[in-house]
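Many introductory courses stop at the sequence. We go one step further.
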Amino acid sequence: MDEMIRIAVVGTGDVAMDHAAALTSSGPVAAKIVAAADTDRTRLDAFLAKHGAPAGYDDIDELLARSRPDLVYLCTPPGLHRDQALACLRSGASVLVEKPPALSLRELDEIAAAVGEPPWFATVFQHRFGRGQARLKALVDSGLLGRPLLAVCHTTWFRDQAYFDVPWRGRWDTEGGGPTMGLGIHQMDMMLDLLGDWTEVRAVTRTQARRTETEDVSLAHVTFANGAVASVVNSALSPRQESYLRYDFEHATVEVTHLYGYRDEDWRVTPAPGRDDVLAAWQAGLSGAGDVAAAQNSRSGHWAQFAKVLSSLRDGTPPPVPLEESRRTLALVAGIYASAATDRPVKPSDVSPGAPFYDSMAGSRAGSG
């Protein structure tokens, strides 16, 4: 790959406006935005003016043919991700996509079939890349915390009716689900990044207050292969908004409370009696912390992940978060929907090829589009 990585941005709404600059300022790898695409010309022109991209298109195929990007950053609604990702991969461009990576496991597997080495496919799960998450993973790997026993993973946010009235939101065929898919997926990904494979989920979903085809709240009990159990709540109805993760290990409780991105001070460690060594290790942090703490001001955010994506592309290695890991997170979302719809516990095999919830987060429910 040339020393300068050529980036195209598809979808120039608020997400792209807020985060695209991080792609060209993420550490030592030189990169530039060479093109953008959007069906809304006013929005596209505003993006081009802000980020200095030289070419704008209303068609992704024309963008790919004319601009020949190395990496395409997809910031479009979820219902467009599969077709756009396939177009990029088949043209030879790697893909970085905002969550959720696809509407269903079937769609994600179709994308996987088009991935080469390169081009690659990665999902934006930026909360994996702050210093607190990296420090916690290092302590888990060291064995100092002991076994994970219990976890709490709560995304309690507030979205009014106007949020759901956007035409593609709150629909199975365009968003893929409600807050379980569109909001809580970030916290669930952080949990899975730490605890690994899940083995069973029992869940309920409800539409409590919003006019929407999907849920506006879900609750789940998740069991992991390592024996840990977790309580998971995803809500769009909570006026006091909070993102909260808690892990009870044999030798300490570790918590983080934030909203859309954590800082070092948002983490708390409570050692078990007689285990002050755990707290000392947490405070000491990681050796070589500058590499794992790439987020500016030690905050979880796009900057840290983007720096690693660009470094990987430069080095010819798969970027984080690889498709198999984002698939595990999407499978848990499917498992929650499947368990809630069928009123029974669900295992990963219950959302495998041939199962209704493999094809759609709605399963066989009426109104799934």
